[in-house]
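I'll show a record.
***
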Amino acid sequence: MEPTDPIFAIAVAAELAGMHPQTLRQYDRLELVVPKRTAGQSRRYSMRDVVQLREIARLGTEGVSLEGIRRILQLENQVAELSERVHELEAALADELLNRPGRRIFAGGGTGEVVSLRAGKRTQRNTQLVVWRPLDRE
């Protein structure tokens, strides 16, 4: 279940928000919190709507006008939408970087250095042979 799923009837949403159902109807008319509607036009509130109703109540007790509350909610919703869009773009960019032809990968070189390679390439193998023998001690 998602926080935006419309599941609460107006009486239940009002009780969860600590408000009278008539207040929720008024907020719907003012477009502060607009619930989804059933086929029979009954209001259905989501958990996100209930959280917004609680926020409206809190802001109201702090002396913020309904118009001020409307603007705050608009800005909060805009920030949430923009944050979601940023996450979508970050995921798309990460996917693009991973799937881009010619992307670079890194490998360990023969002497421990980090070597940058194009995808599909292998490191060069070092075929030198090192022979060691102890020094003659006379």
